[in-house]
Amino acid sequence: MRLSTLMIGFSCVLGLSLQTLQAEVTQIMIALPDADASQTGRLFVVFTKDKRREPRLNISDSPAPRDASPFFAVDVENWDGSKFEFQPDAGFPIQSVMELESGTWRVQAMLDVNQVLSDLDSPGNYYSTPQPIEVGGGSQELSFSLTERVPEESLPADTDLLKFVRIRSDLLSEFYDHDMYLRASVLLPPAYEQDSGDSYPVLFHVAGLNGRYTRSQRLMNDSEFMEYWLDDSTPPAVIVFLDGESPYGDSYQMNSAVSGPYADANFIELFPYLAEQFPIDDIPTSRFVTGCSTGGWVSMALQILYPEYFNGAYSLSPDSPSFRAFQLVNLYDDDNAFVSASGMQRPSARSTNGDPRFSIADEVRVEAVMGRGGSYVHSGAQWGAWNAVYGQPDENGDPIPVWNQATGEINPAVANSWRPWDLEIYVQDNWSSMGSELTGKLQFWMGDMDNYYLTNGLRFLEETLNLMEAPAANAQFNWLPYHGHCGFGTQVHYIDVLNDLAVRAAAR
């Protein structure tokens, strides 16, 4: 999205003494003229050699140190805009600007003040225009003005088939003590006529990590999908695209002691509203849920935790349902998340040929720089979101970290407090009461070379479900050889799912 320029009433001067390997940047000045209110947030200075997009948009673009754009950050509290010396509390992948290699860089400053959405490109955040700097070219002074601001949120324009929704959530607003909103987009079948009285099965689509409700717009540009959707022979359905954002990163659409009652907000507020406004056949046999990655876990969890509400879950490349294999960490038995018992660094991602891309330690390091207070639980990224969704709050309402971000040492008490979210254990403990409502409703797709080492956790769940009796689980597991994370194509992601749910809905 192209961001508009806004002159803001806020001033400061920031001085920073920097030194490169070959030259010295004597000072960086950051100005925000005419401050009329104090600001609290996290201040970033970002360097990148990427010419395609602004430096601020490259923060955490890659946890792999060799690929990352260097950035540094510090918290500011009740900042009146007066001059001060910037002393970052953390940096990634280097700890000091003195370690910058020589060459041409683009530099940008940004202040994150939005406490409602975790995305650093959220409404109200301040930033400067990028400017070039030649490191290794002699002493120089840099000057930036934070003259830009991310504009306030506005819904995209509706089309004949695609509608956008934003409603205030009373439940979330009470939890956070300020206005909170639920968002969604709704894709209608081409056969829908407003006054016909017809209603259709609904597929709730859950995105990957922090995916926004606006992703439906990209699907409209997928020629394979649109050819299917507009074909007269396609069984009609409604697709609802849920929003993943929350103050702590992805909400996982769950009720969390830390991030709030998102499941209740959906079931009590959003879903009934959508059923009133759109041609949704609002009965259990006509409700389905799907998603990949984070959305894969959410779709699986919603079906397992609310088995009477949905008639089928289509889970692709889900986050681990078993904490015996939380990626490559056994949360219950391992002592350290970063290092294995044999002393090897645990990778967090790999290519489909098996080559590690970056470690868990790297990923947590970058999240710690992003997060308020220099803590990864505030990053809004993957490990931060997991700690918020699964964790318990401390005295300030923030999630208690499951492991030490500097050493990787696992806190056994915290890990044990996550057990209610271990879906493998939940199925084992509750099958006698819920099995009759869950049998035949779970379908999974997983590449056997998943890029985030998610295969083991799903295999544990497969073994457990295969043991269930009276009734049998009848879950379907589709293992795709040589496939990575979510790389299954439009046919599997959407078309196969929609065709199957039409059969299931008609069978009621």
Give the full name of the CATH homologous superfamily of the largest domain: Alpha/Beta hydrolase fold, catalytic domain
Q: Over the alpha carbons, how many angstroms does the gyration radius reach? A: 24 Å
SS content category: alpha/beta
CATH class label of the largest domain? Alpha Beta
How many independent structural domains? 3
What is the count of DSSP helices, taking H or I runs of 4+ residues? Answer: 11
Quote the distance from N terminus to C terminus. Answer: 43 Å
Q: Mind summarizing the main beta sheet?
A: 8 strands, mixed
Strand order of the largest sheet: 12-13-15-14-18-19-22-23
**Which band does the percent of strand residues land in?**
15-25%
Total count of strands: 23
Give me the CATH architecture of the largest domain, please.
3-Layer(aba) Sandwich
Draw up the topology in text:
Layout: E1 14-15, E2 25-31, E3 39-48, E4 71-79, E5 84-85, E6 90-92, E7 103-112, E8 126-127, E9 131-135, E10 140-145, E11 148-149, E12 162-168, H1 170-176, E13 181-187, E14 202-206, H2 216-219, H3 223-230, E15 238-242, E16 255-256, E17 260-261, H4 262-277, E18 287-292, H5 294-305, E19 313-316, E20 347-350, E21 356-359, H6 360-370, H7 382-390, H8 412-417, H9 423-438, E22 442-447, H10 455-467, E23 476-480, H11 489-506
Parallel strand pairs: 1-5, 2-10, 14-15, 14-18, 18-19, 19-22, 22-23
Antiparallel strand pairs: 3-4, 3-7, 4-6, 7-8, 7-9, 8-11, 12-13, 13-15, 16-17, 20-21
Helix pairs in contact: 9-10
